[in-house]
Amino acid sequence: RMSSTCSPATIAAWLTEVVSSSDANIVVVGPPRSGKTTLLSVLIGVIGSDERVMVLEPLPEVSASGVPFERLVCGHVDPGSVLGAALRRSPSRLVLSDLADGNGGGGILLRAFESMRRGSLATLTAGTPTDALWRLTDHAHGTGGDAVSILQSRVSNSVHLILGMSEIDGTPCLTSLAEILPYSGGGIELLELVRFEGVSERK
Fold it and tell me: Following CA atoms 112, 114, 116, 121 in sequence, which dihedral angle do they give, to the nearest 10 degrees?
């Protein structure tokens, strides 16, 4: 856990530790052009070079310097089939860039996270972490017969941290960091760890 008042350097160090040690499955959310893919690439960059990282995306956009990874570009191929092919290669980590958007995307993300140990990453287009959870649950609901309560439990068990991105004065900025609490039967609960409240001394 972190203090709600902390510096960008403290947040960066904490996220580096969480990602490098495979402590959590993380979803980066935000509107278009908010820097989701950029942050995703940064997070991939702190994964150990001895791990087998597989990136799944509709177009080749993710770039992580210094970290070898295998890329599977879906194009017009069914994302579920691409995910199956990735899982057969026994990756250490899965990274889903822009695959959770659209019909069925939530089901793909949940299937990916549930198939792996902790430490996988994904992006999702949404205005806020709360919106992202609603979209994820709604999209997953459209791909199967699970009741909403079951989907909420699956999301709570599979997604551990949500990072919210926004554009501030033309610059991509991490504006929120929230933990998803264990499911208790009353819906998905978010615990806000960090929230951006403004620029101080031009930093």
Answer: 50
Radius of gyration of the chain (CA): 16
The answer to whether residues 176 and 129 touch, using CB atoms and an 8 Å cutoff, is: yes
DSSP per-residue letters across 65-127: TT---EEEE-TTS-HHHHHHHHHTT--SEEEESS-SSSTTHHHHHHHHHHTS-S--EEEEE-S
25 contact partners, CB below 8 Å, separation of at least 6: 113, 116, 118, 119, 120, 121, 122, 158, 159, 160, 161
Amino acid at 13: A
Question: Hey, what are 87's tokens?
Answer: 């899982």
Contact 38, 23 (CB under 8 A): no
Q: What is the DSSP letter of 183?
A: P
| Average pLDDT estimate for 15-42 | 94
For 66-101, how does the pLDDT look when each residue is reduced to its tens digit (9 = 90+)?
Answer: 788 999 998 888 888 999 999 999 999 999 998 766
Handedness of CA 82, 87, 88, 92 (dihedral sign): positive
CA distance 108 to 100: 7
Q: Is residue 196 within 8 Å of residue 173, measured between CB atoms?
A: yes
Task: Using CA atoms of 109, 115, 119, 121 in order, give the dihedral in degrees to the nearest 10.
Answer: -20
